[in-house]
Amino acid sequence: MIKNFWYACEFSSAITNKPKQIVMLNQRFVLYRNLQGQVVALKDRCSHRGAALSMGWLENGCIRCPYHGWKFQANGQCIEIPSNAPGTLIPKKASVDSYPVQEKYGFVWLFYGDLPEEQYPPIPPLPEYQDPTMHPIYLEYEMKAHYTRVIENALDPAHLYAVHANSFGAGFAQDPRVEEYVVRDEDWGISAKITYKNYTKPKNGIFKSFFRPARTQLNAKTSFYLPNITKIESDFGRGKMINYAVHIPVDDNTTISKRIQFRNFFTYSWADRIFVKFHQKVGLEDRVVTESQHPKLIPDTLSTEVHVPADALTIAYRKLRQKYLAMGWGLEPNKTASDNSKVHFLTLR
Q1: Which residues touch 211 (CB under 8 Å, ≥6 apart)?
Q2: How many CA within 13 A on the CB side of residue 242?
Q3: DSSP 326-346
Q4: What is the pTM of this model?
Q5: Pfam families given for it (predicted)?
Q6: Distance of alpha carbon 40 from alpha carbon 32, whole angstroms
Q7: Which helix (H) or strand (E) holds 282?
Q8: φ/ψ (deg, to 5) at 187
Q9: Which residues, other chains included, contact 248 with Cβ-Cβ below 8 Å and sequence gap of 6+?
C-alpha cells in the first residue's frame, strides 16, 4: 500500500450527518458532514480508551465518543470531557488524527500521508463526469484479494476470452492473440491503446445488441492512475463505454472496487438496471480467478513470475509502483495511523 496520495474512499452520497466508518489501508476512519455540509474525516479511534467514534453521535458539528462522551471537533481536538469537573484542563494528547478531504466526481477523497499540502499529487481527471452525453451508473463489489491483483486484473488485456467467455468475451475466442501495443506514460500514471478482433456475438447480455455476428473491431484504451484507479474506454462502433474503478485497499486480503460506468448509448434510466446486472456478472467472473491467485500481493521483483508481451501494461504498473515504494511511500502491512505523521484537517471544495 502506498501513502501520499488522494484515495477515493466513498461515494459522496453515502456521507451524511451520521458518522460512517470507512475501512481502508488497514485502518478505520470515521466520516460525517458538519453543519455546513462539509465532509470531516477523523481517525475512528478515541484517544481515551480506543472506542470507535463512528458508533457515537454528532453534536453541533462535533462528534461524541460512544464510551465516555468525549467531544471532538473537526480538527480532531477534544473540547469537552463530561467526567471532568468544571475548569479542568483538557490533556494536550486528547485528540485524534484528522485528514484532508475533497469532494469531486461524486467521490469523497481522503489524503493519507505526510507531505506538505503544496506537494500533494493531484486527483486524476474524470472529464466524462461533466459530459452530458455520457450517462453514468454507480456500483461496487468486494473481492477477497489484494488490491494490486485486482488492479492488474483490470489492466490485463489477455484474459478476456477465457475469464469472460460467458459474457462479453465469447467473440474473442477465435483469435485471442493480443497485438503488440505501446505503453505510454501519463501524469501520475500509464496508458495503452489496444485493438481486439471480435468474431461472434457475445453469448448473452447487453452487448449482444451491439456486436455484429461477423467480425467487429473493438478499440480500447486502458489507463491507470496512482494510487489505485483504472479506466477502460471501449469503442465498438455503435457505442462508447467508459469504466472507472477505484480499487480501495481495505486490508491485505480485501478490496472494494467502487465504479462509475459511463455510456453514450441506451442512456435511458430504465436501462440502468440491465447494465448494473451485466457489470456485476462480469465482476463475478473476475473475482473467481483473482481470489485464487497466490501470492496475494504481486511480487516485488519481476523475475518471480513469468511474463509475455501481452503483459506490458501490468509490468509497467509494477515498475511504477516500485518507483514510489523506493521513494519511501510504502505502508507496511497492518501499519496503524498512529505510526505515521499526523496530518492536519483541511477541507477543499
Answers
A1: 171, 198, 200, 201, 202, 236
A2: 16
A3: HTT-B--TT--GGGS------
A4: 0.89
A5: Rieske, VanA_C
A6: 5
A7: helix 272-290
A8: -65, 115
A9: 7, 8, 9, 24, 147, 228, 255, 256, 257, 258
